Amino acid sequence: MADVKKVVLAYSGGLDTSVILKWLQDTYNCEVVTFTADLGQGEEVEPARAKAQAMGVKEIYIDDLREEFVRDFVYPMFRANTIYEGEYLLGTSIARPLIAKRLIEIANETGADAISHGATGKGNDQVRFELGAYALKPGVKVIAPWREWDLLSREKLMDYAERHGIPIERHGKKKSPYSMDANLLHISYEGGVLEDTWTEHEEDMWKWSVSPEAAPDTPTYIELTYRKGDIVAIDGKDMSPAQVLAELNRIGGANGIGRLDIVENRYVGMKSRGCYETPGGTIMLRGHRAIESITLDREVAHLKDELMPKYASLIYTGYWWSPERLMLQQMIDASQTNVNGVVRLKLYKGNVIVVGRKSDDSLFDANIATFEEDGGAYNQADAAGFIKLNALRMRIAAGKGRKLF
Question: Does residue 272 have an active-site annotation?
Fold first, then answer.
C-alpha cells in the first residue's frame, strides 16, 4: 500500500463512496482525487463538491459528460441496433467505458498512482470499469474496496460513517428499497421485491414513465430525421445527441413507453432480475430499424443482425475498448453511410408503431414491388429457374431416398 500516493475515486457523494473516500485516506494513507460525472442521471452533482471538500479533498472533478455520452457511446451502440439477450438496451453497461476513460484521463492529469470505484464484487460493473481502465492504462492500480473490506452491509457502512464523522443525510424521506442506477439512457432498478422473480414490480417504483394504462388515449406522432444512422432532428427541429435523447425520454415516458422487467445472465455467473426504464432508447431502436429497412442492402442488414449479439455481449461484459469491438464498430459505421431519411412513429400506450419512412437513399422501388402491373420491371418467369436451382440439393437428396429425419 505504500506505493499508492494518490487515487482517483469515482465519487457520487452518497453513503458508499463517502465511506470509500475516508477508507482510502485511512487504509492507504493517500491523497484522494474525486471525480463525479453528470451523465444525465437527473440528480444534482454539484453537492458532491462540498462533501468532498469537507473531507479534505483538494482536487475535485465534476464533469458534464452528457453530450459525449450520447454522441460517442449511445449513438454508436444504437447504429448496431444493440440489445442484450433479446431485450436489454444496455443503459448501465454503455456508461461504464466513459467513466473508466475519464478516470484514467484524470489519473494522467493529476499524476495519480491508482483509481478506485464503488462497484461490488457480485456485479458486472467491477469488470466493466477495470477492463476499460487496463485497456487505456495497462499498468494502473485498481482499488475495489468492496473486495477488500468487511463493510458488507448498509448498517456497517452507517456505523463506519458515524465513527469517522462522515456527514450522513438524515431526513424524513422514505429510502428507496431498490438499488438504482440512472443516466440519460435509462434507470435501472434491482433488489427489494424484485429479488422474488414471481412478485410483480410495484407501480410507484417507476420514475420516468406513466403506466401504459394511464397514458393518453390519443396517440402522439413524431418524425425522426436520420443522418448516417444517427438522429439529428425531431419533428424537423435540429438537436444535439443529448437533446435528442432527453426529448425522446420525455415524449416516450408520457406515453408509457420503455418499461422492461427481465432476468439477465450476469457476466460473473449469476442470474439477476432487474427492471429498466428506457423510453428514449426504445423509440430510437424502433426508428433506426425502420430507416434501415429502406436504406440497407439485404445482405448487409442480415450480416448486421448476425453480428449484433456478439457486439451486445462485448458491451455488456465490459469490452468496449477491446480491438474486436473497435473492429466491429468500423464495419457498423461503414454500413450507415446511406442510412439517411425520416421515420414517422405513432406512440400509443406503451407501443412504438412505425407508420412511415422515406429517404432519398431508399432502395425500395414501388415499380418492382407493386402487386399491380409493373410494366416489365420484373420478369416473374425468372423465378422458376431461381427456385429450381435453390431446390437442387434437396431434390437430389429426395431422389436418393434419403429421409429428412
Answer: no
